[in-house]
Design goal:
282 residues; alpha+beta; Jelly Rolls; Arc Repressor Mutant, subunit A; five-stranded antiparallel β-sheet; four-stranded antiparallel β-sheet
Length: 282
C-alpha cells in the first residue's frame, strides 16, 4: 500500500437530531460512532451507523449525515489522502462499512488515534502508520467472506466442542451424530453446512483442529509424542502418526525436528478454519 498523508483527527459531539451536509468529500475519511447512532446517505446508499462499526468515505462522495434524534451522538474521525496518482483504482475495491469485534485490533487503534497530537511531527507519523494499518485491516476484513462471523449452526458446534474439551483439557474426537445433535440439525444438513463453508465435513474439521493443537505442542513443548497424541484425543500413537502425516506431510517426529516444517495453522488456513481455530485453540 502507498504512503498516507493524515489531516484532521478528532471527535465531535452532536446534539439530538443534528444534520450535516450535503458535503462533497475531497479526501478520505474514517468515521466511527462512539455513542449514539447516525444515518449516513450518499446518492442511493444509506447506512445506519452505531458503535462497533467503521465507515470509509471516499473522495468525490456527496454525503449527508443525520445524527441520533433521541440523544447526543459522539463520533471519531480521521481525514487522510493516499499518495498515488489514482487512489480510486485502489479504494474502489475496499468495502464501505465493516463491523469491529472484541478480537479485532481496530477499536484499540482508533482509540489511540484520538490521543495523538497532529501538530507534533512524531505523532503525525505515528498516525499515518496507524491509518495505513487500519486500511489493511479494513480492506481485508475476514467477515467479508464469512470469516469471524460464524453461522448459527457452526456456532452451535463450536460451543459444544468448547464444552466437550474444556473439563479434561483433552481435544477428543467427536462423532457426526454428537455434533449434529448439539447443533439441532440432521447429520446430512450439518455436513452440507461444513462442506459449503470449509470444503470438509464436520468430523474432518474437528480432526484438523486437533492435529493443529498437536503440531503446536510438537514445536513448542518437550512433551512426548505419545503424551501429545493422548492430549489431542488419539489413544493409538500409530493412528495419530498416520493422521498427522496426512495433514502435514511429515510424521510427528520429523515435524518436530524440521526447522521449516509447515506452520501448525497451515491445514486450517487451507480450508478456512482459522476463525473457528481462534475460538477453540488457545
Amino acid at each position: 500500500m502507498t504512503s498516507i498523508s493524515v489531516g484532521k483527527i478528532g471527535s465531535a459531539v452532536y446534539p439530538p437530531g443534528a444534520v450535516v451536509g450535503p458535503r462533497t468529500m475531497s479526501e478520505f475519511q474514517f468515521v466511527w460512532v462512539l455513542r449514539g447512532s447516525a444515518q449516513w446517505r450518499c446518492h442511493n446508499e444509506t447506512q445506519e451507523l452505531k458503535p462497533g462499526q467503521l465507515l470509509l468515505v471516499r473522495p468525490g462522495m456527496c454525503d449527508r449525515w443525520q445524527w441520533d434524534r433521541r440523544q447526543p451522538t459522539t463520533h471519531g474521525y480521521v481525514y487522510f489522502d493516499l499518495a498515488e496518482p489514482s487512489p480510486s483504482a485502489t479504494s474502489n475495491r475496499w468495502p464501505l462499512l465493516r463491523a469491529t469485534g472484541d478480537d479485532d485490533p481496530l477499536p484499540a487503534m482508533l482509540r489511540y488515534l484520538l490521543r495523538l497530537d497532529v501538530t507534533s511531527r512524531d505523532d503525525l507519523e505515528t498516525a499515518a502508520e496507524l491509518v495505513r494499518f487500519a486500511l489493511v485491516l479494513f480492506a481485508r476484513d475476514p467477515r467479508a467472506d464469512g470469516g469471524l462471523v460464524l453461522s448459527a449452526t457452526v456456532e452451535a458446534v463450536v460451543q459444544h466442542v468448547l464444552q466437550a474439551w474444556g473439563p479434561s483439557g483433552v481435544a477428543r474426537a467427536l462423532s457426526l451424530s454428537e455434533l449434529s445433535a448439539a447443533a439441532s440439525v440432521s447429520p446430512g444438513h450439518l455436513s452440507r453446512v461444513f462442506r459449503d463453508q470449509f470444503g470438509v465435513g464436520p468430523v474432518t474439521a474437528i480432526e484438523l483442529l486437533r492435529l493443529a493443537r498437536a503440531a503446536t505442542l510438537l514445536s513448542q513443548s518437550n512433551l512426548s509424542i505419545t503424551a501429545i497424541a493422548r492430549s489431542c484425543g488419539f489413544a493409538d500413537p500409530e493412528h495419530f502418526s498416520h493422521r498427522f502425516r496426512r495433514a502435514y506431510e511429515l510424521p510427528p517426529g520429523r515435524y518436530r525436528q524440521t526447522a521449516d516444517a509447515p506452520d501448525p495453522s497451515a491445514p486450517l488456513a487451507a480450508v478456512g478454519l482459522l476463525p473457528v481455530a481462534t475460538r477453540l485453540l488457545p
